[in-house]
Design brief:
mainly alpha; 2 domains; about 0% strand
């Protein structure tokens, strides 16, 4: 698969995910949180749509079809996608914090991090900080 085709596939999957999340997002009673999820989804959707249009233009112009450079490191891209889908499934059963810690630690390791203290600190503190911000800042319960 060449780079332009992989980008088209990735942007399409992202747009489908944005549409699905838009449908699932419910009404929030608090004024502070009412429009936030929709704003994030709209921004993500606009970026994905621009990415899709750019990739289609590159594919039709014949750019991005070279075989010299693999798309997304092909195997690495598929592993990252599989890991993200697995993470999404684990959140449903184990809550937000534990799968997030594991996902961030594994991702940091595969992105080249080798300082275990730093990986552990980021993998533990970031999900806890985000969880605390969302639960107490927006007063929205999340699965723990």
């Amino acid at each position: 698969m060449n780079r332009a085709t992989a980008n088209i596939l990735g942007a399409s999957v992202l747009l489908v995910g944005v549409a699905y999340a838009w449908v699932l997002t419910g009404d929030f009673e608090q004024d502070a949180a009412k429009n936030y999820p929709y704003a994030v989804l709209a921004f993500t959707g606009i970026v994905a749509a621009c990415w899709l249009v750019r990739s289609v233009a590159r594919l039709s112009a014949g750019r991005g079809t070279g075989t010299g450079e693999p798309a997304l490191g092909t195997v690495g891209g598929y592993l990252a996608l599989a890991g993200t889908l697995l993470y999404g499934g684990l959140v449903v059963y184990f809550g937000y914090v534990l799968p997030s810690v594991i996902y961030l630690a594994v991702a940091a390791y595969f992105l080249g991090g080798r300082r275990w203290g730093l990986i552990g600190a980021i993998a533990i503190l970031f999900p806890l900080a985000l969880y605390t911000f969302l639960v107490y800042g927006f007063d929205r319960p999340l699965p723990f």
